[in-house]
Design goal:
The chain is built from eight helices and four strands; from the N terminus they run βββαβααααααα. With about 180 residues, the protein is mainly α. Strands 1-2 form a two-stranded antiparallel sheet. The protein has a two-stranded parallel ribbon with strand order 3-4.
Length: about 180
């Protein structure tokens, strides 16, 4: 612990991965081999880990921080109904939406936050649902194009049938290799 200007300062590691932390909890554990003469003078530092997926046991004084942790944790668990129930109609600051998007790996939420497209979590979840449907359609179209390429359809014919550009078909063809 460091004392700075009469105040204590601690280092906190925030881990927001979907899977449980499986890394080291101190500096010494990160070193594979350490000669005894170094070990005798080595200063080991404990890592203070705050794991989002295991953060239900914490209560934060700041309601925004509490919301970010709760929504992210519930999203990782797939409990979208709980998110809707608790945060559905509550107004969310665009910065909070951006942070939740970063932590959950959702580019859509990040963009919604940056563009200030939504003002509550319910609307954000609905937009995410719509985006997910569009992604599914795009994946199906890509699969159809792949089948046509494997069956040696001419690129011009694939473009006519699928309504896509030659550039897109060539990108998909390149991904086959």
């Amino acid at each position: 612990m460091v004392v700075f200007g009469g105040k204590e300062v601690i280092t906190l590691t925030l881990y927001y991965g979907e899977k449980q932390w499986d890394g080291s909890y101190c500096l010494k554990d990160m070193i594979v081999e350490m000669p005894e003469e170094i070990a005798a003078i080595f200063s080991d530092y404990k890592m203070n880990l705050l794991e989002v997926r295991d953060s239900a046991k914490y209560v934060f004084n700041n309601t925004d921080v509490q919301s970010v942790f709760e929504i992210t944790r519930e999203a990782f668990a797939g409990h979208f109904d709980r998110i809707r129930e608790k945060y559905g109609e509550k107004e969310l600051d665009s910065e909070l939406l951006t942070v939740i998007g970063q932590m959950t790996g959702s580019k859509e939420l990040v963009n919604m936050g940056r563009n200030m497209e939504v003002n509550n979590m319910c609307t954000a979840l609905e937009k995410l649902k719509e985006d997910g449907k569009m992604e599914g359609i795009e994946e199906k179209e890509k699969a159809v194009i792949l089948v046509m390429l494997k069956n040696n359809y001419p690129i011009s014919e694939i473009c006519k049938i699928s309504g896509t550009t030659e550039e897109t078909v060539l990108e998909i063809k390149q991904s086959m290799k």
